[in-house]
Specification:
The protein has 1 helix and 9 strands; from the N terminus they run αβββββββββ.
């Protein structure tokens, strides 16, 4: 009888110490939405290659894709609050690549116990060299959601 009571006590103790798993299902930090817009009829973007500058000042390949009209890229959360990207096409020579520089401020926002903190990017400004892309249109100065486009690159 004592043996059954001991087993029941241990079972109840284990059962009471169980805790729900908190799983984060939402996106905590939004990515930058780049939209591409053809304004020059004879210029065709047949592919897209994007590199992002890392902490050492070198550029790492982010994506290499065929024809697309938009892409999402993540911004680093670092002290300098600046991101640099090299964006080009398949041939990737100096006439088909541009450097996109993004300056921003960021704030941390507590999402939940499971998700932790998310980042919102505020007061963003964009600058691009004009080799392949003719101009840049700022659609939103704050990056708080992935559902909206933030900048449009016209080629």
């Amino acid at each position: 009888m004592i043996r059954y009571l001991l087993i029941l006590t241990v079972f109840c103790f284990l059962l009471l110490n169980c805790e729900d798993d908190d799983i984060c299902v939402e996106q905590t930090t939004p990515r930058l939405n780049l939209r591409f817009n053809q304004i020059t009829p004879d210029k065709v973007m047949d592919s897209l290659i994007i590199y992002r500058e890392n902490r050492e000042g070198e550029f790492d390949l982010i994506t290499r894709r065929l024809v697309i009209d938009s892409i999402q890229v993540s911004l680093p959360v670092e002290e300098r609050s600046q991101a640099r990207f090299i964006i080009g096409t398949r041939t990737f020579d100096s006439s088909n690549q541009d450097t996109l520089t993004i300056n921003y401020e960021y704030t941390l926002q507590f999402i939940s116990k499971a998700c932790g903190y998310g980042v919102n990017y505020l007061n963003t400004s964009y600058d691009i060299t004009n080799h392949y892309f003719n101009s840049i249109d700022t659609l939103q100065n704050e990056i708080t959601s992935e559902t909206a486009d933030h900048i449009m690159l016209n080629y």
